Prior knowledge:
This protein has 234 residues and is an alpha/beta fold. It contains 8 helices and 10 strands. The protein has helices spanning 13-17, 39-49, 57-63, 73-88, 91-99, 132-138, 200-210, 214-226, and strands spanning 2-6, 25-28, 52-53, 103-108, 111-116, 146-148, 156-159, 164-167, 181-187, 190-196. This is Phosphodiesterase, MJ0936 family.
Amino acid sequence: MRILLIADIHANFVALSAIQESFDACLFLGDAVEYGTDSAPCLDWIRGHATAVVRGNHDHSTAQRVQSQGASPLRRLAAATRAINERVLTASHRKFLSQMPLTRSLELDGQKFFLVHATPRDPMDEYLPEDAHAWQQRLSFIEADFVCVGHTHKPMQLDLGQTQVINPGSVGQPRNGVPEAHYAIIEQGKVSFRTVPYDISRAVEQMREAGLEESLIELSEHLLRTGGSLPASV
Length: 234
Ligand SMILES: [Fe+2]
């Protein structure tokens, strides 16, 4: 069985469309929306293809119309794209976002999977680095062969003995310096991390067509072209 892991699409449908893999099951690890502006086709793709999903902090913010606090560049970008979501998402999209679970446990191909966007301690928001001891603590009562996460936008494979913690990296807004769409494949218990280039110019143009303000388009383009660096001017 071939299992596709994707996370942190962030409304970048050009990046999502570049992933041309066959799969028997697809696990989506949260953050379909915000930062980018092409939310509706990303949600439609997930609804049509994902075997299981969990809710990311940005899915929650859009579903619940959460007001952003603070003025950091990423918060400004999230708030502006959330406002665009308001215009482009249907009631059915919002219902889907509202009902995404915080965690999911399932068995595939004889192996136990536990899905959460961030960590079991704080399912949507905790940023936990690649620290075996800290992950061991968070996973004390979780029995799984694979714990699949997103949120940091950086690929990770942590071997904790009985359990492997896998972060496939971000489809639509990587922060590991590699400006491509990231994902992972699990087949016969073996994990492979992959990236695929996509048309960043087209993704940026889509933001312009959606009406995102020019300073935030420049910020997004810098983030996408550098694989996650903030420009010196912000
Ligand atoms: Fe994210």
